[in-house]
Amino acid sequence: MSKSIDFQLFAPYNQEAVLIGSFSEWQPIPMKKDDKGYFRTEVKLEDGEYEYKFRVRSKSWFLEPDQWVYIVDPYATKVIDNSEQNGIICIKDGQKFVDTYVWQHDDKPLPQNHELVIYEMHIPSFGGGNYQQAIEKLDYLSDLGINAIQLMPVQEYAGEDNWGYLARYFFAAESSYGSTEELKHFIDECHGRGIRVFMDMMLNHSEQSSPLTQIDHNYWYHHEARDPQNSWGPEFNYEHYDENLDIKPAWNFAGDVVRFWIEEYHIDGIRYDAARQLANYDFMHWIVEETKKTAGSKPFYNIAEHIPDTPNITNFDGPMDGCWHDSFYYLVTPAIWGDSFDLEDLKKAIDCKLDGYMGVTNVINYLSNHDKERLMISLGERNIFDDAAFKKAKLGAVLVMTAIGLPMIWMGEEFGNSQNKQMEHPSEIDWSLLNNERNLGLLEYYKGLIQLRKNNPAFFTENVDFFHENSETKVFVYGRWNDEGSRVVVVANFSENYLAGYVVPEFPADGTWHEWTRDYDVEVKDRQLMIDLAEYEAQVFIN
């Protein structure tokens, strides 16, 4: 039995629009504009799937005045991403729906923001191509200790074989990775393992042929890039206010986007790509509040990619919960590579408060990410290979896992993947490396550090003290602690020299301390710790 289905297109200053679709044999169906700026029409449809699109007289400056253009519905939840570029509408029981997926793990408790250990993942590169293959590797992440996945873009983007940072259809899931049901199944399986899922979202810009650019470019976007050197596509204009309709159109669209993904796909956080280019704190405050209201009682985490990073984005009046701590990368890696050794830089990396940040969830620390070359690549460029490279990788792992902030691993970093970054035609990470003893050893090292971090409440605080440093031997010592008595001390050797019988004075307390990475006990007397410290080694002591 057919029922009337409403089709609508918001285009308040366009003169004319029609609907075409498989249900009309692609013949135009007139649409009437209401006083809110929506073109509307109703079509009687049986249950099923139908292809459709709109034809509208454009107001975009780069087209002829009132030129007819074909566009996909900007709110389409499925798109045939081929030369036809049609939206898909699904009808069941006379109602629009995305799919019939039934969630299995909504009642599973998930970690709070301060407990997170994050893994940045590109679906095709991680699992081999699609969501189902990624699901098959989730137990690997559980064993590693990961409890949050930062998904690289999964909104429908231009093309099929790239990282996806040019979103074309903001409500549709990238079809080359699998169906909407399979994406939900992936997220559900993550939740079943206690793993939260964050979405990488482009609210700064879109791909140049995205529907809104074709309907009325200057209604939605800035006429031209405000910072041409850092522009990746048409930039949404969050300053534009429509006095006639009393709305900020770009705000409304972005709000609809984030609410949809939280409600429909049960995501647990959003990374806002190019947040510095957004450059509108009022909008960012509002969008963060919208995410929290939509998520309700479940934990949600809003992350800014603001490069260079700044505490202004997270502190006091700052809109975001946290940001990518790019400074950590630039402060720590020169010491790991062996390019330089600056104790003050290391202190600022370990204690983000020295740069003005307030708390654990304000910064996300990393040794690499999709924008950086992997640590093994950077070491190889300096002719550092084999044992020396893996020792330095372990040293870096200790720093990222024990610094104030949340640690993030770029997929494969945990076992020393050494592939160059590939924005176009990215290949699967090289899992065969786990057949090598060194790579497997690095993976086990990461597992142990993650277990330590998740189980020691000292890491959930903003407490850190620096009580020993030696610029000649390149030894750097710091402690993490909480008020209940948990304490962790890191003794790091950044030199190429083996330090036998090295003495760390002013150790926090006498008594028996356990070293985590080598698994041995040591007695501290007169507040002096004496240990043998290998080259490029960090030892981690717990009380």
UniProtKB/TrEMBL annotation:
Active-site residues, as the UniProt record annotates them: D273, E305
A GO BP entry: glycogen biosynthetic process
Parts forming coiled coils: none
Ranges where the Glycosyl hydrolase family 13 catalytic domain occurs: 120-453
Gene3D superfamilies, sorted: Glycosidases, Golgi alpha-mannosidase II, Immunoglobulins
UniProt cross-references to InterPro entries, sorted A to Z: A-amylase/branching_C (IPR006048), Alpha_amylase (IPR006046), Branching_enzy (IPR037439), GH (IPR017853), GH13_cat_dom (IPR006047), Glyco_hydro_13_N (IPR004193), Glyco_hydro_b (IPR013780), Ig-like_fold (IPR013783)
GO molecular-function term, one example from the UniProt record: cation binding
Family, as annotated: Belongs to the glycosyl hydrolase 13 family.
Name of the protein: Alpha amylase catalytic region
